[in-house]
Structures are given as structure tokens and as C-alpha cells.
């Protein structure tokens, strides 16, 4: 058996004339957390639904655990856990019953299931809320219940589809820590999000999608290193004339400089001691300035450069 | 898995306030309202006549054929139920005692050349008993001749008398069921069809194209149809229990007789509940819209109930005159008719035909649902 857990080859999914997923391929290796990054409507959830065989697709191949995925591939499904984007719990059942119901779809043995349910509740910090109905829980707790229902049966592949949408920072941290812990325990994970900082924090590899296509792939550093911008220097100063901006653009490694709302932003494509060179120029011209800040590129910058737009939503 | 889903579905359904309200409580409230509206009319329905319990006393030396005739009238026929329940007494005193104690409703005292009808008050019973005597006397010569020469032909003569007793023909002797009970039959039909709501709720939580829980369910390694059948069973059981409560409430608390043994009424109503659940399953497998899943079962139930006579008593007859096929395809009418047939005429062929139609409808709904639901993935979600 290879170390490939999920392999998607040239997936195409059309909704009538609209192409939702366009020749998309991905591979998740054992022990990885693969981030699937993209704006709303980029095709992440459609890809996940195709991988799970909930959606039919027009072209392509999906292999999970080296077997072809299909709606009746129960042996594959039994090893997959899913935390869907929207909360998927039964409002008429309490916390314990919800986890027990969904865990029971995978685990037949009653004692084993009871143990797993208790462990999932412990893991998500819901042990004190067993008798609560979902409507009585806060948004963060409901999200945690959503996770508990998806992971209670201890799957070896877990798919998280934007699990932190509308979650407060404390709960978000708890969720991200939990995901890392599950990964350390041996689960391979696909994590979709449009929050780039989350993906950067937990994912060992990242795929950026837009309009159903893969637009970039690599580790967070690979992606950042692929950018033309390697460093930005922001300097607070009063209004300056075009000649000065032209001079600054002439400094070594500076490829762009823009002034707006009392701040000059200088973009550099590499080099060393760039800040020193810029400040030397300011000194030489006797230009007044206030705060000075240097920034390294983020995944958001990567996305902007690749797609030429801000993340939607 | 089947039993777990079954038990969880029961748990879920009884915790849904709108199901408890509409399926469990509303029929009880409506039954009470019907009772307040025309409960007394049912109890005192002038068109209702129970089997008359009558004593027969023969005077000294009397050896007439009248006893044979009234014994024939004590048998159920396919046209109507038992008209008389005859008990022979040795003396008029003993019969009078029984009459005073209201053990019987009248006495035929045959003495000399006459047959006397003794009752405690005038009314429908005394008129009926007198009518029988008159008819006998009109045919007395024929009776005597047939009984002496060809006793096996007595049945034919009795039938002939029956056909001429137009006065008695208007009444349903079998069970004493009032025409107004049709409203309660229609109420049970409505309650049973309300169960279509139960199954659309159940389907919603099991199908990926209807809810997030459905997606989670279909991602799991379980057979969807098995789970849906567990849900159907749970819904049918709950609706049958709910209907049984209504049936017992009407029979024992409101004191209105359904016109048939209560276990038979419960059994037929359970079949109707299964029909309602099956219709809901079909609706759930066709419609994807949340609003449609609530409104279609409601609209369907109320329309069928209206045409079965829930709001307007004679509508079934009007439909029968102008478009009889509607009565055969309206599940509420088929159900009310089956109860009516059973209550008034017993297990006639029309009764079995109604049961057959209900079973056929269940089968058709489930087969179409299975054909739609067996598809395991979706074009869009």
C-alpha cells in the first residue's frame, strides 16, 4: 500500500454550463494536513462533496486508501470522518445522543461506542454539556459538537470543511489545537478554509483554488518564496512629490513605491539591508518621517499576487 | 443499525413540538369539538336503531309459526344486521320483570289469535316491533303453508318480507352507528394523513439533498434505504399510537361507539397511518424545498380530508354522483369508507376492496420512493 491517502486526478464537475471544478488534482499523503485554500465559490466544498461521493462528477478519478471511491464503498467510508461546513447536528437530540447517533453509524459494538463517545466529548470539551440540546449551546460549543460528531469513530482520514466559520477566537484556537492533536495521533487531514492564517498555522502543505482550478501548491514557505514581493517597508511621513518616489524606485531591489494617506509603502524583491538603504536616502534628502515598519509576505499576499484580487467574504 | 435508527427516530419525533401538536393533540381537540358540536345528535340519532332485544311469550296452547319467523329475523343477513334478539320466556310475569328492569325492550305476547306488542313507551322500537307483527300477519297464510309443506323455502319468504319492510330498511341494525360518526371517521383519516409530515421530517434528516444531517448520514457507511424503512416503521408506530389514543378517547371518554370492534378500528387506522407515512415518504423523495416539505403534506391532507367529508357531511355522495373515481383515489375517502362499510354492513366486498386500495397505494408510494431514493449520489446539493 502506498502512502497516498487521497488521490484526485483531473476532477471535473459541471452544474449545467458552469464549471465548478475544472481538471482539479490533489494528493494527500499519510500523516499530512493538506490545506485547501480559496475564496467562497472557488470549488472547495464541491471538491470535498465529490471526494465523499455525495456529488456525481463529470470526469476524473478519486482514489481513497488506494481504492476507487464510490457511494457504496462502505469499507472506505468507515475510515473517513467529516466535519461539514454547516453545523450538522440533530436539534431534537442532546449532545451525548448526537455523538452517539452518528458514532453508531460506524461503530456497532456498544461498549466500544460508549468509550469512543466519551472520549470525543472529552476531546472537544463537551463532557459537561452532555444533556444539553444544541439550541442551548453557544456558537462555539455547537461547532465543537459538530466536530465531535465527525471524529468520534476515530477515522484515519478527516475532512474539515471550514470548521471555524463564525467562531470566536478562543474556540477557534481550541479547534485548531484539536486538529493538530488528531494529526499527531495519526489522522491524515484535509482542511478547507478561506482564512489564510489558519491554513498557514496548521497545514503542512497548501493548495490554493480559484474558479475550480488549482492555482498554486506547496508549503507556506514555498508559496511565499514564489512571490515577487519579498519584503515591504511602510514609512509614515507627510506628503511627498513624484520626484522623490521616482528616486526611491531607483534604490536597489525596490520595484514599487506608493504613497497614500500619510504612508509610503515600498515593495522590494529581495536583497539585504534594504531598510538601511532606504533610511540612508531619507537622511541624505533630509526627509521627515514618523513610524517605520517592515513586513514579510503572507499567504494573503500570495493569493493577491496569484489571483490579482482580495479574498472574497 | 436498523434498531438503533428506529429507536432514535422515535426519540426525535416525539421531541418535535409541531408533531406532538398537530399529530397527537390536534385530533383530540378536534374530536372534542366535534363531540360538543354534534355529540348529542349522534347519541340520539333518530335514524339509528340498535338490535331490539325482545321477549317472546306464548300463551297456553299456542303453537304458532311466529316464533320461527322472529328467530329468522334474529339472524344477520348480508343486507342488514340483526333486527331482533329474541329470548323466550315461560310466563308474561317473568318477561314483564325483565322489561321493567330494562333487560329487554319489548315483549311479543302471543295468545288466542293475536300477537300483542308490549313496550314501556311508544317510539321507534314499538313501531318496529308492530311493523314486524303486521308483516307476519299479512303473510301468515303463506307461512303456515310453506312451513307445513316446504319448510326449506322459509328463507325465501323471509327475504321477501324483508324487502317489503321498507320501514325497517332505512335503519342500520347491526351496530347502531350514526351517520354523524362519518365526521369522526374523517377525523381519523385526517390524523392518519398528517403522518405524512412525520415522514417528510424523517426523510429530511436522512437525505443529503435535504439537510446537513442528511449529508452526514449519507457519508456514513450505512444503507440509506434500510434507515428510511426504520424511520417509516417508527413513524407508523407513533402515528398508530396517536390514533389509538383518539379512538379510545372517543369510545370511552366521549362515549361514542365507532360501530365496529375497537381492535378492528385500530387495525384499519394503523393501515391508514402506514399509508400516510408512505405518502410522506414519496413527497420527501420528490421535493427538495424545505417549504414544500412542510406545505405539500399539509395541503394534501386537508384537501383529501375535505373531500372525505371532514368539513361537509354529504360531499362523498356528491363526488360519488359526479366523479366516483375521485372517491376511489382519495386515501381519506377510501379509509372512511372502509370504516363505514365495516360499521354498517360488516366485512363486505366493498370493505375488502377499500383495504386492498389502501395496501396498493402504500405499495405504489414506497416503490416509487425506492426508485427515486436508491440513487446514491446527487447532481447538486
TrEMBL record, chain A:
Annotated ranges, domain ABC transporter: 6-236
Keyword tags: ATP-binding, Nucleotide-binding, Transport
InterPro entries referenced in this protein's UniProt entry, alphabetically: AAA+_ATPase, ABC_transporter-like_ATP-bd, DrrA1/2-like_C, P-loop_NTPase
GO MF annotation, one: ATP binding
Keyword Transport: yes
Transmembrane segments: none
Pfam families for the chain: ABC_tran, DrrA1-3_C
Protein name from the UniProt record: ABC-2 type transport system ATP-binding protein
Organism: Lachnospira pectinoschiza
Automatic annotation (TrEMBL), chain B:
Transmembrane regions: 20-38, 183-206, 227-250, 262-283, 295-319, 355-373
Keyword DNA-binding: no
Keywords in alphabetical order: Membrane, Transmembrane, Transmembrane helix
Annotated ranges, domain ABC-2 type transporter transmembrane: 21-371
A Pfam family annotated for this UniProt entry: ABC2_membrane_3
Subcellular location: Membrane
Keyword set includes Membrane: yes
A GO-annotated cellular component: membrane
Domain of life: Bacteria
The protein's name: ABC-2 type transport system permease protein
Organism: Lachnospira pectinoschiza
Amino acid at each position: 500500500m502506498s502512502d497516498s491517502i487521497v488521490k484526485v486526478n483531473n476532477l471535473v464537475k459541471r452544474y449545467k454550463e458552469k464549471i465548478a471544478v475544472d481538471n482539479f488534482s490533489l494528493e494527500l499523503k499519510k500523516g499530512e494536513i493538506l490545506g485547501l485554500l480559496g475564496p467562497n465559490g472557488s470549488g472547495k466544498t464541491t471538491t470535498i462533496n465529490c471526494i465523499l461521493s455525495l456529488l456525481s462528477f463529470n470526469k476524473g478519478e478519486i482514489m481513497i486508501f488506494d481504492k476507487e471511491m464510490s457511494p457504496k464503498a462502505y469499507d472506505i467510508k468507515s475510515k473517513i470522518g467529516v466535519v461539514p461546513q454547516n453545523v450538522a447536528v440533530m436539534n431534537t437530540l442532546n449532545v451525548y445522543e448526537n455523538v452517539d447517533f452518528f458514532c453508531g453509524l460506524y461503530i456497532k459494538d456498544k461498549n466500544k461506542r460508549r468509550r469512543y463517545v466519551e472520549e470525543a466529548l472529552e476531546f472537544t470539551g463537551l463532557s459537561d454539556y452532555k444533556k444539553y440540546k444544541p439550541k442551548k449551546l453557544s456558537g462555539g460549543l455547537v461547532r465543537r459538537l459538530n466536530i465531535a460528531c465527525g471524529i468520534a469513530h476515530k477515522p484515519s482520514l478527516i475532512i474539515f470543511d471550514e470548521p471555524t466559520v463564525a467562531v470566536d477566537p478562543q474556540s477557534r484556537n481550541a479547534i485548531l489545537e484539536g486538529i493538530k492533536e488528531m494529526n499527531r495521533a495519526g489522522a491524515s487531514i484535509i482542511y478547507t478554509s478561506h482564512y489564510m492564517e489558519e491554513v498557514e498555522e496548521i497545514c503542512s502543505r497548501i493548495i490554493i483554488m480559484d474558479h475550480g482550478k488549482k492555482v498554486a501548491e506547496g508549503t507556506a514557505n514555498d508559496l511565499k518564496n514564489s512571490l515577487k514581493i519579498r519584503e515591504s517597508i511602510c514609512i509614515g511621513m507627510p506628503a511627498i512629490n513624484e520626484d522623490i518616489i521616482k528616486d526611491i524606485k531607483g534604490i536597489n531591489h525596490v520595484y514599487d513605491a506608493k504613497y497614500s494617506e500619510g504612508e509610503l509603502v515600498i515593495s522590494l524583491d529581495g536583497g539585504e539591508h534594504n531598510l538601511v538603504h532606504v533610511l540612508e536616502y531619507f537622511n541624505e534628502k533630509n526627509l521627515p518621517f514618523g513610524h517605520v515598519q517592515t513586513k514579510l509576505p503572507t499567504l494573503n499576499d500570495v493569493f493577491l499576487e496569484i489571483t490579482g484580487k482580495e479574498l472574497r467574504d | 443499525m436498523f434498531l438503533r435508527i428506529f429507536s432514535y427516530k422515535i426519540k426525535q419525533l416525539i421531541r418535535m413540538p409541531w408533531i406532538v401538536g398537530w399529530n397527537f393533540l390536534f385530533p383530540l381537540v378536534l374530536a372534542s369539538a366535534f363531540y360538543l358540536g354534534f355529540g348529542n345528535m349522534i347519541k340520539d340519532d333518530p335514524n339509528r336503531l340498535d338490535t331490539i332485544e325482545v321477549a317472546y311469550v306464548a300463551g297456553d296452547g299456542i303453537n304458532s309459526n311466529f316464533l320461527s319467523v322472529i328467530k329468522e329475523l334474529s339472524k344477520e343477513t348480508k343486507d342488514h344486521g340483526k333486527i331482533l334478539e329474541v329470548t323466550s320466556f315461560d310466563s308474561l310475569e317473568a318477561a314483564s320483570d325483565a322489561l321493567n328492569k330494562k333487560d329487554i325492550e319489548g315483549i311479543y305476547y302471543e295468545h288466542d289469535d293475536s300477537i300483542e306488542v308490549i313496550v314501556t313507551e311508544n317510539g321507534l322500537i314499538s313501531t318496529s316491533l308492530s311493523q314486524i307483527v303486521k308483516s307476519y300477519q299479512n303473510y301468515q297464510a303463506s307461512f303456515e303453508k310453506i312451513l307445513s309443506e316446504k319448510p326449506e323455502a322459509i328463507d325465501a319468504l323471509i327475504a321477501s318480507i324483508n324487502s317489503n319492510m321498507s320501514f325497517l330498511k332505512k335503519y342500520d341494525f347491526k351496530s347502531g352507528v350514526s351517520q354523524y360518526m362519518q365526521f369522526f371517521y374523517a377525523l381519523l383519516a385526517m390524523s392518519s394523513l398528517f403522518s405524512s409530515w412525520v415522514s417528510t421530517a424523517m426523510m429530511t434528516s436522512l437525505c443529503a439533498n435535504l439537510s446537513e444531517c442528511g449529508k452526514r448520514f449519507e457519508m456514513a457507511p450505512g444503507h440509506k434505504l434500510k434507515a428510511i424503512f426504520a424511520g417509516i416503521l417508527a413513524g407508523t408506530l407513533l402515528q398508530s399510537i396517536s390514533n389509538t389514543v383518539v379512538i379510545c378517547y372517543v369510545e370511552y371518554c366521549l362515549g361514542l361507539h365507532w360501530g365496529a370492534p375497537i381492535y378492528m378500528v385500530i387495525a384499519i387506522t394503523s393501515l391508514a397511518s402506514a399509508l400516510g407515512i408512505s405518502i410522506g415518504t414519496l413527497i420527501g423523495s420528490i421535493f427538495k424545498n424545505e417549504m414544500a416539505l412542510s406545505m405539500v403534506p399539509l395541503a394534501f391532507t386537508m384537501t383529501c380530508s375535505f373531500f372525505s367529508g371532514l368539513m361537509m357531511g354529504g360531499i362523498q355522495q356528491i363526488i360519488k354522483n359526479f366523479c366516483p373515481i375521485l372517491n376511489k383515489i382519495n386515501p381519506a375517502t377510501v379509509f372512511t369508507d372502509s370504516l363505514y362499510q365495516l360499521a354498517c354492513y360488516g366485512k363486505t366486498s366493498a370493505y375488502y376492496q377499500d383495504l386492498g386500495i389502501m395496501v396498493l397505494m402504500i405499495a405504489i408510494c414506497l416503490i416509487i420512493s425506492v426508485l427515486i431514493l436508491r440513487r446514491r449520489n446527487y447532481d447538486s446539493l
